[in-house]
Amino acid sequence: MTRPARLLSVDSLSVKIGARRVVDRVALEIATGETLGLVGESGSGKSMTAFALGGLLPPVARAEGIVHLAGDALPADRPEAWDPIRGRRVGVVFQDPYASFDPLRTVGAQIAMACHLPREAARARTLALLEECGLPEPGAMAGAYPHQVSGGQLQRAGLAAALAQAPALLIADEPTTALDATVQAQIVELLRRLQARHGMAILFISHDLAVVARVADRVAVMKDGRIVETGTAARVLSAPSHAYTQVLVASRPAGRIGAPVRPGDTIALESSSVGFAYAPRRMGAVREAALADVSLRIRAGVCLGLVGESGSGKSTFGRLAVGSARPSSGSLRVFGLEPSDPASARARARLVQMVFQDAAGSLNPRRMVVASLMEPLALHGIGTRGERQDRAAALLDEVGLGTEHLRRYPHELSGGQRQRVAIARSLALDPALLVCDEPVTALDMTIQAQILKLLADIRARRAMAMLFISHDIAAVEAMADDVAVLHRGRVVEYGAASRILHAPVDGYTRALLGAVARLPVRSASAVAR
Amino acid sequence: MTRGFAGSGAALLRHGAVVCAIAVVMFFLIRVIPGDVVDVLAAEGDLSDSEIAALRAELGLDRGVAAQFVAWLAAAARGDLGLSIRFERPVAEMIWFAVPGTLALAAKALAIGLTLGIGLAAAAVIWPRRVFVWLVNAVNLWSIALPTFCVGLAAILIFSIWLGWLPVLGQATLPAIVIGIDIAGQLAKPLHEDLKEIAAAPFVRAARARGQSRATIVFRHLLPNAAPVAIALSGLILAGLIGGTLTMEVLFGLPGLGTVALQAILGRDYPVVQAVILVFALAIVLVNALTDLCQRALDPRLRHD
To answer: Closest Cα of chain B to A88: distance in Å?
Structure first.
């Protein structure tokens, strides 16, 4: 097979911010029409590499190296050298579609500006681009403001803007990370189709190995600013040679962690026909139902996985379970108590606790870890000061942290450590039911695996019931005994995890599971090679 | 559409309530100041006790404060602001003659302030040279540290007395510049901070990635996105401006609401004071309403759809 012509190559690209070298002598090559997947965790330098290759480095960054783009040598440290490149020869799609459009201008106006054509021609091209990017009503989309359209649609429009001048290289910086699974799959499909039609090269940056496996021809793995491994996607993902890549591939949760716990006789949570509607924002507006007719049951010691896309009502159900909101209809009981009843608030707090997605936001930044851990004990008048301190240390030990972390502030901890502290705090009152709302979503892949393992261990040790809320099917598969799938506030499928995740009946569940990117199963021969 | 109308109706009601509340408070407040107009007149021209009593009765000042308020409210509702006790002229007429002077001074000052403030803030973002950032900070410090009446006095001393470029009294150029710089100082610093924040926003990087030039980014993305902050600040500044014109008018001997208000307060000319404060209250409420409207017109996210 003849290798297609080299489009972009760089021998030694470095980016420094202050004294820190965030990109360290990176060498990359992308051929025309090829997709290179750049994989790494947060802080690995993958986004800075992308910015350097697009001439988009922030002013504080200092770059070194020469980027060769189809015969031109572009010094990375001279932003003005990139003026004729940006948009014209290199297009960029960003992670958050809402953040990549000016909120005050219509989507169409911004794509038209990206065309750099006379007014009428730009308008016609805008409509053509929107249509090409799979938006059925280009006219309506062009006239809409960014906040008026869905994330998936806006990401399509972002793609249209990036392709406005038919660049030879498209840099896609986590283009699907902020989107729901079904939408992710659609955007990946669209990227492939556009590439097939226009033959552009794509630098696809992602922390998600499974997504990269779907799109990339070749993969480069970054860690601490360096590229540790490069190769064909099939080889790197099935038979990684570098130790870090092996950890990365292995941290993808595959299957259940630990043996199922024998369910207890008591019922931890029972909801029957629960409905919830948020108060209308304006008088006379229709109350939109966030939940309708939700009937679920969690036995003591059992983990129920609640799956759904954003807006499906899964977090709302979590709020009802801990009593921070009251159902509009139906009834919800936690160990026989009504969680939102103020009279039972103290008893409720000792039975149900919650772990949030954003650990940094759920810990008081001005309190040391030990103070955060002692607070629930003090509120419930448990123990003397000294006993509470001992308890705090024991809790930290349970979540795998040491006494040296007691006197730290949240900002002195890593994301994974912060989530461990948040979990420790939720355990302080020995709850019998733990509500976890997307507890690993904000974490890197390798850390996700550790936190999931921790949660599974704690649950088994304490024989604790759990409501595990997540959009991530793999995480739910790792944790849950039972699964309920929420779609637009309704339970569309509910039953044993093994049944639902492997033989779904409902159409929506099937679509949801089908959209989940999975790594190809490692074959023995590939590992042996 | 009906919803929008109902919204503006509610806003109108709210604004009306604010004006009414101010009218009530100021009506009673001014009567708390010891001595009324009759005391002032008596001190000037040696009046007998019976003459004083007769005058009080004539002016209705012998009645209770509540009764006076009801009478004033009834008249004001008919558009009759009464007669000035001191000048025996209709109050409405006095106000009518004073408003253009104040308005002209405020407009000039605002024009200077907005141009200078927005210009400096934008320049400091466009050209990352220290000089503009330094100027933004300098003008900010100036307006915090130096009250306008001090700067006004200094300006008279330098430009009118030493240099003799402008007359001391009756010209509106110096006071407009003095207030204008004050406004610029209040505006430039927060606006500069806001612009810096917007310049670091992801959509600005996205616009660069789409090949937009520096000028396009500044004029079509940065400045429009800073407009909400600029307008909110301008609204606050306009409200403060009303007090600012007051002192400047008195200092530079300009005819205007400030001069009228000062004379009226010193002479306990209740109808005039009441009317001036009412006009100020109306002006501030109007500015607030306009600020709201501008914000809504500029930001599609605030529009109801």
So the answer is: 7
